[in-house]
Amino acid sequence: MKTIYLTAAQIRQLATIAKEALPNESCAFLLGDNGKVVKILPMRNIDESPVTFSIEPTELLNAYNLAESEGMQVIAIFHSHPAKPSPSSTDIKFMEINPVIWLIYSTTESQLKAFVYDEDDIVEEIAIAIVSPKG
Ligand SMILES: [Zn+2]
Question: Within the chain, how many helices (H) and strands (E) appear?
Fold first, then answer.
């Protein structure tokens, strides 16, 4: 089973990003390697919407360039829902295009969940492992 590795501090950071964006959805890119998150890049939700998010193309490109220059990958896309932490039909469409790990934080349930769109065209929830900063 696929797993994403985050520190407790990183999970708190994602929750803070989500809460600060309310009433709208927030979004961020998670850079790292082998499923382990090293850096969180908060992104601006140009939709300024409580039900969708979009990232400006130049900001998107900068994130990929930064990842590459630091020898990392964009391993996950994070966004928040002022609702349940499950992918919307729009999310599923974008998950198919961007087959990385998708993290969704629910500001109503204070819960973080991770999903992947797998080769059988199924959205599957994956495990979130909390690791120590050094590990
Ligand atoms: Zn969503």
Answer: 3, 7
- Residues in Cβ contact with 47 at an 8 Å cutoff, skipping those fewer than 6 apart: 24, 25, 53, 54
What is the CA(17)–ligand 1 centre distance, in A? 15
Domains of the chain: 3-131 (3.40.140.10)
What separation in Å is there between the alpha carbon of 41 and the centre of ligand 1? Answer: 18
How close is the Cα of 32 to the center of ligand 1, in Å? 22
Residues with CB under 5 A from ligand 1 (ion): 88, 91
* Residues tagged active-site: 25
- Tens place of pLDDT for every residue, the chain, 135 residues? 689 999 999 999 999 999 999 999 999 999 999 999 999 999 999 999 999 999 999 999 999 999 999 999 999 999 999 999 999 999 999 999 998 999 999 999 999 999 999 878 789 999 999 999 875
